[in-house]
Each structure stands twice: as structure tokens, then as C-alpha cells.
Design goal:
Elements lengths: L16 E2 L5 E9 L2 H12 L10 H10 L10 E9 L6 E6 L8 E5 L2 E5 L16 H5 L2 H4 L9 E2 L4 E6 L3 E6 L16 H19 L6 E4 L4 H16 L13 E7 L9 H4 L5 E7 L2 H10 L28 E3 L19 E3 L2
Helix pairs in contact: 1-2, 5-6
Length: 351
């Protein structure tokens, strides 16, 4: 497992992770937010002994404390993991994916062996032979349900987990779904109260994502969403003295944008420059040139629903690796190295 290192860059963050009693093991892709608070609760209230500073250890700790599926209630972040419980009488494998499916997780069976990975090509060395699932492609099922582009390969859906036991085989269950108020219920909040509620949640969400042992930056397109993210990061640093990743205390935020020719009609760099206390690294070029550069650098374009290969509305190409973790409001992750899972590569965070 090649780990994307954001929290705990030391060898103690290497995977697979093991519980304090040595009987539960896990491989985790992604990041668990609010790590410091949850870690303190596990250690002080439940006596769990951590052997490192990696946020991913929370998956093992919370599972040992709360069991499944209850521990999912405490997991907040973008993640996909596979966990093995080797305790006598409890032997099982549990695989889980975050609520919105930011991190991918697919599985298949080859020669009686259950295989799980972030993408299907990882199955090739294990004897898997790819075959297009024409039905899933034609009816769009590869985007809407558990099917993928390949026959026999399924994905763990967002907000779902999979449990594998000797007695019951493979079982899938939904642990979370979006809840909406009854439309007939009369709204009693004022507009100002609703605006304040949205702002409080957005600020808290961004604050939690600034916790990192690597530099943190923002993808800035000039639109209202990414501009709001950049503005809130600046405000947290300036007014609340919140540290931005591993950088020295500063109110300046590293922002990454693309500058297209003005006549193209796609250039938003002038709006990007209006964001106060930010510095922007812009890459000149036509849309075709930028996408060709992305292809040469081995960037992976992926939609949240599966293995889509479609270009995003903007592609960043900083000239030097100044930032290792990016906060973005888009649905596409673009790493700054050929492998987005390797230590030292550029990670991405969504809202």
C-alpha cells in the first residue's frame, strides 16, 4: 500500500495499521478529520494506546471501541479502507467508503479470492482478466449503481460498507444517507439565521482541513465557491491565528490557478487576483496545451461516482512542488506527481 502522507510523515504512519492489542489490522486511503479531538477521546475515555500520529489509526481505534457499524458515526472525512478483525470468534473483514464516495473502492473475486483496491487495474497482477460490462456502459449503471465499467468488478457505494465472514459470505449495508426536512414543515428560521448556520458549518469544515503536516493551498478558479474557501482560510489565519498546514504562521494563502488567453473567454485570473492576501501561481496556455501538459505529467482525472475520465473546468500546474495538500471546491482531484497515492505527492480535499 502506497500512502498519501498528509498527517504523520514518520515511519509510524506506515501501513498496514495495527491495533494496540495486535489483533485488528487495516489499510486506509484518505484522511479522517477532527483527528486531534477524536484521538484524545479514544485515549482518555477508553484507554486506547496509539503508536503514532497518523489520523488513519482512528479507523482501527474507533472500530475496536465501538464495533461495526457504530464506529462509522464517528468517522468524518474522505476515506476508503479495508479492516481485518482477527480476534477469536469475531473474525471478519470490513470494507468501508466515505459518505459521498470521495475515495474509490472496488472489489472482485478471482479464483475464489476476494480482491479489493482503489482501482480495477490493481487486480491485474492477481490474475484478473478485464472485460467490458457493455450493459453497465449502455444504461449508465457504472455511474448509478454498484457496477463498474468491467464485468465482475463492483464498487462499494458511497455511505456503504461491506462485511465478509466465513458464515455469511459477503454482505453489503448502507450506514448513512442524506436526510431532508419534511417539505410541509413551516420554516421558522430567519434568512440571517440560515445564512449564519451555513457560514458556521463552512468555516468549521475548512478549519478541520487545515490540520496537516505538509503545506496546504487552495485551488482558486475565481468562482464564488473557491473564492469563499480562499477568503475563509485567510480569515482563519489572520483573525483566529489558525495554522495553515505545516507552514510557518502566516496570513498569506498559496492559491493555484490557470490563466487562459484573454480572448478565449475562459480566463478568470483577474477575479483570482482580487482575493486578498493570496498569491497565485498561474500557468499560461490554451485549453489543449494545458490538458496535454496534464497528460504528460500523468495526472488522473476521476469523477466521484466511478472511473470517469473527463477534463475538469480548470487544471492547475504549479511550476514547483510548493504545496502538498490542496483544498478545492471542485469534484476532481489532480495530483502534482504521477502517483496520487505515493508519499510526497499532492493530495486533494473536497467540500
Amino acid at each position: 500500500h502506497c500512502r498519501l502522507s498528509i498527517n504523520d510523515l514518520s515511519p509510524s504512519g506506515s501501513q498496514p495499521l495495527t491495533s494496540d492489542d495486535g489483533q485488528i489490522h487495516a489499510v486506509v486511503n484518505g484522511e479522517i478529520y477532527d483527528y486531534d479531538r477524536l484521538r484524545d477521546i479514544c485515549a482518555t475515555e477508553h484507554g486506547y494506546k496509539f503508536n503514532g500520529e497518523s489520523d488513519s489509526q482512528l479507523v482501527v481505534a474507533l472500530y475496536k471501541i465501538h464495533g461495526a457499524p457504530a464506529f462509522f458515526e464517528h468517522l468524518r472525512g474522505e476515506f476508503a479502507f479495508v479492516l481485518y478483525d482477527g480476534r477469536e470468534g469475531r473474525e471478519r473483514v470490513i470494507a468501508g467508503r466515505d459518505r459521498f464516495g470521495i475515495k474509490p473502492l472496488v472489489w472482485t473475486v478471482v479464483d475464489g479470492r476476494l480482491l479489493m483496491a482503489a482501482e480495477a487495474k490493481a487486480f491485474l497482477p492477481m490474475g484478473w482478466k478485464p472485460e467490458w460490462d457493455v450493459g453497465a456502459i449502455v444504461d449508465g449503471g457504472w455511474m448509478m449503481d454498484e457496477r463498474t465499467l468491467f464485468k465482475g468488478v463492483k464498487k462499494v457505494l458511497p455511505g456503504h460498507c461491506m462485511e465478509v465472514t466465513e458464515e455469511r459470505g459477503v454482505e453489503t449495508r448502507k450506514y448513512w444517507d442524506a436526510e431532508y426536512e419534511d417539505k410541509s414543515k413551516v420554516e421558522t428560521r430567519s434568512i440571517d439565521e440560515m445564512v449564519l448556520g451555513v457560514r458556521e458549518r463552512l468555516v468549521e469544515s475548512i478549519r478541520l482541513r487545515l490540520r496537516a503536516d505538509v503545506p496546504v493551498g487552495v485551488y482558486l478558479s475565481g468562482g464564488i465557491d473557491s473564492s469563499a474557501v480562499a477568503g475563509i482560510v485567510t480569515q482563519l489565519a489572520k483573525e483566529n491565528n489558525v495554522k495553515i498546514g505545516s507552514q510557518a504562521p502566516s496570513t498569506r494563502v498559496a492559491c493555484f490557478s490557470v490563466r487562459f488567453p484573454e480572448e478565449s473567454g475562459y480566463d478568470e485570473s483577474s477575479r483570482c487576483s482580487k482575493c486578498t492576501d493570496t498569491r497565485s501561481f498561474c500557468a499560461n496556455g490554451t485549453t489543449r496545451q494545458v490538458l496535454q501538459r496534464a497528460q504528460r505529467n500523468g495526472w488522473v482525472l476521476r469523477s466521484r461516482k466511478g472511473m470517469s475520465m473527463k477534463p475538469p473546468s480548470h487544471v492547475t500546474s504549479p511550476t514547483r512542488p510548493t504545496t502538498a495538500s490542496i483544498i478545492t471546491s471542485t469534484s476532481t482531484a489532480l495530483p502534482n506527481s504521477p502517483c496520487q497515492h505515493c508519499p510526497g505527492s499532492m493530495g486533494s480535499r473536497w467540500f
